[in-house]
Amino acid sequence: MNLQQLEYIVAVDRLRHFVKAAESSFVTQPTLSMMVQKLEEELGVRIFDRGRKPIVPTREGEEIIRRARQILAEVGNLKEYAASLNGEISGELRLGIIPTLAPYLLPLFLKHFSETYPKLKIHIKEAITDDIIRLLRRGEMDMGLLATPLNDPGIAEYPVFQEEFFAYVAQNEGFPQKKYVLPAHIDPSKLWLLQEGHCLRNQIFNLCELKNSTDFGMAVWYEAGSIETLINLVDHHGGITIIPKLATMHLKPQQKKNLREFNFPKPVREISLVTAQNFPRQLLLEKLRAEIVARSPIGMQEGQRVMER
Q: Which CATH superfamily is domain 90-160+272-305 in?
């Protein structure tokens, strides 16, 4: 058994095709097939069901592939850890970030961070929380930037900042003209929401004490995929939405008049860097966290965290 064979079975599992896996591994298909077969013979386990199209792992093969991913990840981490002992940040960083954070936070720190550590290759994937956690567990992602707490024993959380929520209200809604508003002031029948799968959607449900219903009495029911869409819907169709602070910083002066602050304790979401437990590249983690803290216009503020149910 060798690392190359482990890389081959991971490639076949990812692409579900021997020819494509061979091309991605820069070997011929017969060579890859022979190496996979030798590994199966050595382990005494059939890893793939070749009779199905696309090819899928057997039940026993799924566990072997999972462990192969862990081994390959540990080898990569070992090399990068050795480099970090000399204060060098290099190798690869596979970073996941939720869509309600990516367009606002990435431009603040990414350029400076990549220029500071030119030997580090950064791969960024925008994905919802559940997908980021799944990739962290599979060893296919190093870190995630998302809303916490997750209450997941397999995931370590490193808080970065807390982000206040604001109500964004169309001017013709007759919303109370007060300095601070309460969640009770929000009419669910006029509330625009993100589509299911976004943690921000669940946080808004909790903030407004809404039931998991899809019938709020709206004439038009639209589940948006981005905060920008929600803002545009309010601007052109009326109604209300809830947006985090970073999203307010790109509003036009006229749009900022539509913002309403919540009363104390202000609802906030905690944003954290998350990794699988026992993540070895602590220097990289600390440098990235410090960079985000230094570049972010908001910090760890007092407030009432809005969590998912």
A: Periplasmic binding protein-like II (3.40.190.10)
Dump pLDDT digits (tens) for 103-128.
Answer: 999 999 999 999 999 999 999 999 99
Reported pTM:
0.74
Q: Which residues contact 166 (CB under 8 A, 6 or more apart)?
A: 242, 243, 244, 245, 248, 259, 260, 261, 262
Burial class (CB in 10 A: 0-12, 13-18, 19+), 208: buried
For the cut 80, the answer to whether the pLDDT of residue 309 exceeds it is no
**Category of 56 on φ-ψ map: left (φ > 0), alpha (ψ -120 to 50) or beta:** beta
* Bridge partner residues of 259 (DSSP): 168
3-state secondary structure (DSSP) of residue 264? coil
Domain 3-79 fold is: Arc Repressor Mutant, subunit A (1.10.10)
Q: Which fold has domain 162-267?
A: D-Maltodextrin-Binding Protein; domain 2 (3.40.190)
